[in-house]
Automatic annotation (TrEMBL):
This is Bacterial transcriptional activator domain-containing protein. InterPro entries: AfsR-DnrI-RedD_regulator, BTAD, Sig_transdc_resp-reg_C-effctor, TPR-like_helical_dom_sf, WH-like_DNA-bd_sf. It comes from Tissierella carlieri. Transmembrane segments: none annotated. Residues 107-251 form the Bacterial transcriptional activator domain.
Length: 396
């Protein structure tokens, strides 16, 4: 059985082994194949195909180029190979080309649409079956449709359509989980979905609500602080009224967090109120979530400049430091780092002598400036001269 994967990383597999890894295919022929599967079973004029795919190319005879590429596509699988059989056909009738998959082929986007459409339609009358269908459909979505095609205009409306369908199915699925009070499953679902839709406010609201329901109010507040900062710094969007009301509700539900709201403190040792103009301070387990999220996003966008920093307080030479002096040095470091990083950066306390940080949208050449500034301020402000600050950064 052949399986064509169009969400996330494009691939064609036969018996779970990629045929793209074993056979070399020209870029132009593969682009044409992706175009055909996008318009599976649709009538396509040669002029439309040429305009969408090769409008910027000055071919002497573009229709002949198209015929050549289609001829190569028809021979894409070597029929003499006993282990492989052709899994699609390209028909030509009345001036139109029609691409069709055979019975030995599963197209993920087609199965995705069928499952999500049926799941959405059954939400009211058969919620249990709807839940099952939507779960299966959502698992097929592994990122944007044909995400490796970045700049071609023809793909934009199709990609947006599947994205809307994904979000519609996702939100219906979460609503059904809410009815069953399955908050842990909602949290898991949202964590996975945020990888693909990091800036959808509704998704983050579901996530924050579920965290609150399971008693993770500080985690919920940390996430609110983080995502509202990221939404504003990246795309200039301020939190909606609904998002703000949700935030206020969490505040009212947990009176003992009143002093923590602007700080997102990382533990009880962090007592001073630094305001809310510096880096986001969060708990270690939430920092781990953010790190994994950014690492996954980095694998899809190598242009992002993100760095992981480790800041360590150490004894100078063989000198020793008592516990109170070390705590005082750590509090000094926390305040310095908080006030000298940007509002969009993230900071957490790893242990009694180490901080970790995530820096966003920064050039590597600027790291030395940051390191020197932090070390200088620490040396000036730390009362105990037996401790030193070491800082290391690595690219995500």
């Amino acid at each position: 059985m052949y399986k064509i994967y169009t969400f996330g990383d494009f691939d064609i597999k036969y018996n779970d082994e990629s045929i793209l890894d074993t056979k070399g295919y020209q870029y132009r022929m593969l682009a044409l194949f992706k175009y055909f599967i996008t318009f599976n079973e649709k009538k396509l004029l040669p002029e439309s195909i040429i305009e969408d795919l090769w409008a910027d190319n000055e071919f002497h005879d573009p229709k002949n180029v198209l015929r050549t590429q289609i001829s190569r596509l028809r021979r894409m699988i070597n029929l003499d190979d006993k282990n492989l059989k052709q899994f699609y056909r390209i028909e030509h009738s009345n001036g139109y080309y029609v691409f069709k998959t055979n019975d030995n082929c599963v197209l993920d986007v087609q199965l995705f649409k069928e499952l999500i459409d049926e799941g959405n339609s059954l939400k009211e009358n058969d919620p249990q079956r709807s839940l099952s269908l939507l779960k299966k459909g959502l698992k097929l979505y592994r990122g944007e449709y044909l995400r490796e095609i970045e700049y071609e205009e023809w793909i934009v409306p199709i990609r947006n359509r599947y994205r809307r369908l994904y979000l519609q199915g996702l939100f219906n699925y979460i609503e059904l989980l809410k009815q069953k009070k399955m908050n842990e499953e909602i949290i898991k679902t949202c964590e996975e979905a945020i990888q693909y839709e990091p800036y959808d406010e509704v998704l983050h609201m579901y996530f924050i609500e579920a965290l609150t329901e399971v008693g993770e109010k500080r985690y919920a507040i940390s996430h609110y602080e983080y995502i509202t900062s990221r939404l504003y710094s990246h795309i200039g969007i301020k939190p909606s009224l609904k998002m703000k009301m949700l935030y206020k509700k969490i505040q009212l539900d947990e009176e003992n967090l009143k002093d923590d709201i602007n700080l997102s403190k990382i533990d009880e040792e962090l007592k001073e109120d630094y305001g809310n103009t510096g880096a986001l301070i969060c708990e270690p387990y939430y920092f781990k979530f953010l790190y994994n999220l950014e690492a996954r996003k980095k694998s899809r966008n190598m242009k992002d400049n993100k760095f992981l920093g480790i800041l360590t307080i150490e004894n100078r030479g063989y000198l020793s430091t008592d516990e109170e002096d070390r705590k005082e040095a750590m509090r000094t470091l926390e305040e310095i780092v908080y006030n000298n990083l940007r509002k969009g950066d993230v900071l957490s306390k790893l242990n009694s002598s180490q901080l970790v940080s995530l820096l966003y949208d920064i050039e590597e050449k600027s790291l030395n400036i940051i390191v020197n500034r932090l070390q200088k301020k620490f040396q000036e402000r730390c009362k105990n001269k037996n401790v030193i600050l070491k800082i290391r950064f690595k690219s995500l």
